[in-house]
Amino acid sequence: MKLEDTDQLWIDKMNVSDIPGVQVIERHSFTTPWSMQAFITEITENDCAHYLVMRRVEQVVGYIGMWVIVDEGHITNVAVHPVWRRQGIGTKLLKAMDRLAYELGVRKMTLEVRVSNHKAQALYRKLGYRDAGIRPKYYLDNGEDALIMWKELKPDEFENNTDTGN
Ligand SMILES: CC(C)(COP(=O)(O)OP(=O)(O)OC[C@H]1O[C@@H](n2cnc3c(N)ncnc32)[C@H](O)[C@@H]1OP(=O)(O)O)[C@@H](O)C(=O)NCCC(=O)NCCS
Predict the structure, then answer these.
(1) CATH number of the domain to which 94 belongs
(2) What's the CA-to-centroid distance between 85 and ligand 1, angstroms?
(3) Burial of 67 (0-12, 13-18, 19+ CB in 10 A)
């Protein structure tokens, strides 16, 4: 579906009430989707976890998660509902997470992505992530390797800059 100019999109912290919508996207997006309980535990019990959703009207159209470990931000997942893809939502979610991470004192971001997931890799490269190695047989469902990517968060991107990524 095409986003209209009048469509209001906004980014929020993920709440427990968002999780059913998040799970719909998760099931459309991943071969081994996280359970409802996994998300609940993440947002209610894991102090190093930060989850954001992109809302459109009453609907969750995308989400992103990160763990902060010392000064590193580890992206745990990012996904956009299939009907809303390729309209910049994934980019906005990653930029919003970079900003949150920077504000939390994070200066380096990292993630793992399937070596076959060229679409996500293109998105990450566009946002400054660079290839940094391979984790062999990282994905248990099919034994696929993970590409490890890293990005530095540079002050000039965030200081004196009010762009929220929205
Ligand atoms: C990866 C994903 C989050 C991208 O979300 P999105 O909202 O469609 O991304 P954007 O519209 O912001 O795309 C930004 C850039 O990413 C790349 N990209 C995104 N979708 C692409 C596609 N289908 N084919 C090629 N490149 C693509 C392009 O470089 C694109 O820029 P462009 O549109 O100017 O060419 C989405 O495809 C998704 O949910 N995929 C399934 C879950 C997944 O693979 N998550 C990553 C796990 S590591």
Answers:
(1) 3.40.630.30
(2) 7
(3) middle
Alpha-carbon gap, residue 75 to 153, rounded angstroms: 14
Distance from residue 6's CA to the centre of ligand 1 (Å): 23
Query: Do the domain assignments include residue 131?
Result: yes
Whether 102 is catalytic? no
In a domain, 2, yes or no: no
- Catalytic pick among 51, 63, 102, 124: 124
Q: What is the pTM of this model?
A: 0.95
Residue-by-residue pLDDT tens, the chain, 166 positions: 888 888 889 999 999 999 999 999 999 999 999 999 999 999 999 999 999 999 998 899 999 999 999 999 999 999 999 999 999 999 999 999 999 999 999 999 999 999 999 999 999 999 999 999 999 999 999 999 999 999 999 999 898 765 555 5
Around ligand 1, the residues with Cβ closer than 6 Å are 29, 78-80, 85-91, 113, 117, 119-120, 122-123, 126
Please name the amino acid found at residue 39.
Answer: F
For atom 1 of ligand 1, the residue with the nearest CA is 120
Is 124 catalytic? The answer is: yes
User: Are 51 and 88 contacting, i.e. CB atoms less than 8 angstroms apart?
Assistant: no
Q: How many domains does the chain have?
A: 1
| Residue 30: domain span | 9-158
Query: Which one-letter DSSP state was computed for residue 58?
Result: T
